[in-house]
Write a structure and sequence with these properties.
Layout: E1 3-8, H1 14-28, E2 32-37, H2 41-47, H3 53-62, E3 64-67, H4 81-88, E4 93-99, E5 112-118, E6 127-131, E7 138-141, H5 146-162, E8 167-172, H6 180-192, E9 199-204, H7 205-214, E10 221-224, H8 226-239, E11 247-251, E12 256-260, H9 277-289, H10 293-309, H11 323-335
Parallel strand pairs: 1-2, 1-3, 3-12, 5-10, 8-9, 8-10
Antiparallel strand pairs: 4-5, 4-11, 6-7, 11-12
Helix pairs in contact: 1-9, 1-11, 5-6, 7-8, 9-10, 10-11
This protein binds nicotinamide-adenine-dinucleotide.
C-alpha cells in the first residue's frame, strides 16, 4: 500500500515548485500518494478560509505533510499560517541543513552544517502583541519553557549522534537576555553533559553570525531559539548559494512537515524560473523520515549532479534554465 502524505501547494511560486517536486518523487518511484489540501492566500481564494479544518484533519491523519511556501503579509494583516501549523502540531524541531553543492556560485565549497531551530516558543511567536492606540508604543512577549528548551536541545544532540556529527553549538544571547536565552544556554549545558561523545560549545548570536561568515567550517550542528534560528538559517543558506538550496523539516512527536526555507517569492511567481531544489531537498528529508533512505540519497545525489552540470539550472544558480528544464534534467537522470 502506498504511503499517503498531505500536499499543500501554497502561494506565489509554491504551485510551480510543488508540481516539480511531485514529478520528481514520481520519477524516483517513492510510492507516495498525495492528499492535496489548501492553505494560504490561495486557500482563501479557493475555499474562503486561510487554513481550513480539512487541511488540519488531513495532516493529523497522514502525519506527514509536504508544504510549499505560504505568504504572510508584512506589518498588518493575518498572522503567519506557518507558525499556526507548527504550533498546532507541536512541530518543535526545525531542522535546516546548509550543504555546499559543486557548481554553485557560493563563497564556500565545503559548508556542511545543520541548524536546529526551536519552533514553538520565543520572540518569533509575537505573543501578547499590542500597539498603543496612538501608535506611540508597541510590545510583544518572549516566553520560553525549560521543557521546550530541553526537548529541542536533546533533539539536536540525538540528531548529531545519529548522523555521525561531532559537535553541537548552542547559540544564544544570554549576556543580555539573561532569563530567556539564559535558560536556553543553561539547559544546553545540562543536556550536553549527557552526551560525552559529542563536543559542545556555546556562542553569543552576534558573534555566531560573524563566525559563520568568516569560518563556517567550525560549525557542525547549531541549536538555537526560534527567532535566532530563523535568521541564522537564512544566513547559512547564503553560504551555500542561496535560498533556492535550503530545505527545512518541522518535526514533532505526532506529525512532521517538510518545506523550503524560502518564502513565496512574489517577485518571480509565475515566471517559470523558481528553483525547485529547496523543496526537493525537503522531500529528501521527508523520505529519510519515512525510512526511504536509499531514495533520499539517490535524490540528493541526482540534484547535486544536475547542479554541477549547470546547463539546465535556474538563474538564481547562474543557469539559463527554467523550473521545468531543471526538473526534467533531474527526472531524466532518475529514470536512466
Ligand atoms: N515557510 C514559509 O512558507 C515562508 C518562509 C519565508 C517567507 N515566507 C513568506 O513569503 C513571502 C515573501 O517573503 P520574502 O520575499 O521575504 O522571502 P522569499 O524567500 O520569498 O524571497 C527572498 C528572495 O529570494 C528569492 N527566492 C526565494 N525562493 C526562491 C527560489 N526557489 N528560486 C529562486 N529564487 C528564490 C526571491 O525571488 C527573493 O528575491 C512573505 O509573505 C513571507 O512571509 C513564507
Amino acid at each position: 500500500m502506498s504511503q499517503q502524505i498531505t500536499v499543500i501547494r501554497g502561494d506565489g511560486i509554491g504551485p510551480e515548485i510543488m508540481s516539480a517536486t511531485l514529478k520528481v518523487l514520481d520519477a524516483l518511484g517513492a510510492g507516495l500518494s498525495y492528499d492535496e489540501q489548501h492553505a494560504g492566500v490561495a486557500a482563501r481564494e479557493a475555499v474562503g478560509q486561510l487554513l481550513p479544518e480539512e487541511t488540519l484533519a488531513s495532516i493529523e491523519r497522514n502525519r506527514v505533510a509536504l508544504k510549499a511556501p505560504l505568504t504572510t503579509p508584512v506589518g498588518g494583516g493575518f498572522k503567519s499560517l506557518n507558525v499556526a501549523l507548527r504550533k498546532h502540531f507541536d512541530l518543535y524541531a526545525n531542522v535546516r541543513p546548509a550543504i555546499s553543492f559543486k557548481g554553485t556560485r557560493s563563497r564556500y565549497e565545503d559548508v556542511d552544517l545543520i541548524t536546529v531551530r526551536e519552533n514553538t516558543e520565543g520572540a518569533y511567536l509575537g505573543e501578547g502583541a499590542y500597539t498603543a492606540p496612538d501608535g506611540s508604543r508597541a510590545e510583544s512577549k518572549m516566553v520560553v519553557t525549560r521543557s521546550g528548551c530541553e526537548r529541542v536541545v536533546r533533539f539536536a544532540f540525538d540528531l548529531a549522534r545519529k548522523n555521525g556529527r561531532r559537535k553541537v553549538t548552542s547559540v544564544h544571547k544570554a549576556n543580555i537576555l539573561k532569563d530567556v536565552t539564559g535558560m536556553f544556554l543553561e539547559v544546553s549545558r545540562d543536556v550536553a553533559s549527557e552526551y560525552d561523545d559529542i563536543e559542545f560549545n556555546d556562542m553569543i548570536v552576534d558573534n555566531a553570525c560573524m563566525q559563520l561568515v568568516m569560518r563556517p567550517e567550525q560549525f557542525d550542528v547549531i541549536v538555537t531559539t526560534n527567532l535566532f534560528g530563523d535568521i541564522i538559517s537564512d544566513l547559512c543558506a547564503g553560504l551555500v548559494g542561496g535560498l533556492g538550496l535550503a530545505p527545512g523539516a518541522n518535526i514533532g512527536k505526532n506529525a512532521a512537515m517538510f518545506e523550503a526555507v524560502h518564502g513565496s517569492a512574489p517577485d518571480i511567481a509565475g515566471k517559470g524560473i523558481a528553483n525547485p531544489c529547496a523543496l526537493l531537498l525537503a522531500a529528501a528529508q521527508m523520505l529519510d523520515h519515512l525510512d526511504q533512505h536509499d531514495n533520499a540519497s539517490r535524490l540528493r545525489k541526482t540534484i547535486a549532479e544536475v547542479i554541477e552540470q549547470a546547463d539546465r539550472t535556474t538563474p538564481d544558480l547562474g543557469g539559463n534554465g527554467t523550473t521545468e528544464s531543471f526538473t526534467d534534467a533531474i527526472c531524466e537522470r532518475l529514470v536512466r
